């Protein structure tokens, strides 16, 4: 079954339809509590990430993170045979958290219910990655641990390397994209 799904995903010309759910999952949540927790973390780290990246780059990274973390979740679920829904919202939020914690590791953080207990952002990121790695390895179903790990690793990679490799060199890519779109529109394509 896994082989058939992978072959379908990689060789089917209509596989573009599979990308829409991965993008839309960036805004999906399992429950009201899940959404509230994600929005609190996003609100807590949003000013820092926007200061680091700017509004446009933040939106691009956030949407990319949702797709990437959902894809990582799909791959992990196919590998383990667990076919549950994958939601990229938590993975995108983990990207934001990991990016800020990687860029500002000495920042002091606290847990909402225990504000008197503080720790560094770097330590928090290590603890979250360890927790999600254990959850993935041991098959815990508390969270989508694969999506969290995919998002965290993408956030760490992006602020370390991606900004220089992608964002600062986006002009040729954008120009090529516009040329390709113009050429396809002239041939009757959409």
UniProtKB/TrEMBL annotation:
Topology within the bilayer: Multi-pass membrane protein
Peptidase S54 rhomboid domain boundaries: 22-162
UniProt catalytic activity: Cleaves type-1 transmembrane domains using a catalytic dyad composed of serine and histidine that are contributed by different transmembrane domains
Pfam families in the cross-refs: Rhomboid
Gene Ontology biological process: signal peptide processing
EC category name: hydrolase
Molecular function per GO: serine-type endopeptidase activity
Keyword tags: Hydrolase, Membrane, Mitochondrion, Mitochondrion inner membrane, Transit peptide, Transmembrane, Transmembrane helix
Gene3D superfamilies referenced in this protein's UniProt entry, alphabetically: Rhomboid-like
Subcellular location(s) per record: Mitochondrion inner membrane
EC number(s) on file: 3.4.21.105
Regions crossing the membrane: 21-43, 49-75, 111-131
CC terms in the record's Gene Ontology section: mitochondrial inner membrane
Family designation: Belongs to the peptidase S54 family.
Identification of the protein by name: rhomboid protease
Organism whose genome encodes this protein: Oreotrochilus melanogaster
Gene (UniProt): Parl
